[in-house]
Amino acid sequence: RGLPFSATKKDICKFFEDYSPIEDSVSFTYRSDGRATGEGYVGFSNADDARNAMALHRNMMGSRYIELFISSKEEHGRSVARSSVH
């Protein structure tokens, strides 16, 4: 949460580059009017990388600080389904 509204999949992968993010797993959430919410999901190569990536909680991406939360595959799947509408 807190992503710059202009963030791209490549930006997310760069932010998490030390933790083996999976670029194809990156998804963003959008409001009903199509605008970005500043929230997104990213998968990692393994559970250890996902846990270790939490070290970046409240780090800055551009001028915004990013809040990180562990989410489930189901939450990620719902996000992907919603984002495919846009």
Detailed description of the structure:
With 86 residues, this protein is of the alpha+beta class. The protein contains three helices and four strands, in the order αββαββα. It has helices at residues 9-15, 47-53, 73-83, and strands at residues 21-30, 36-44, 60-61, 64-65. The strands form two sheets. Strands 1-2 form a two-stranded antiparallel sheet. It has a two-stranded antiparallel ribbon with strand order 3-4. A hairpin with a 5-residue loop joins strand 1 and strand 2. The longest helix is centred in the last third of the chain and has 11 residues, at 73-83. The protein is globular. It starts with 8 loop residues before the first helix and ends with a helix. The mean pLDDT is 90.
How do you describe this structure in short?
The chain is 29% helix and 27% strand. The chain is built from three helices and four strands, in the order αββαββα.
Structural class: alpha+beta
Question: How much is the radius of gyration in Å?
Answer: 12 Å
Q: Tell me, what's the shape?
A: globular
Order of helices and strands: HEEHEEH
Strand content: 25-35%
* Major beta sheet, strand line-up: 1-2
Report low-confidence residues grouped into runs of 5 or more.
none
Major sheet size, sense and barrel closure: 2 strands, antiparallel
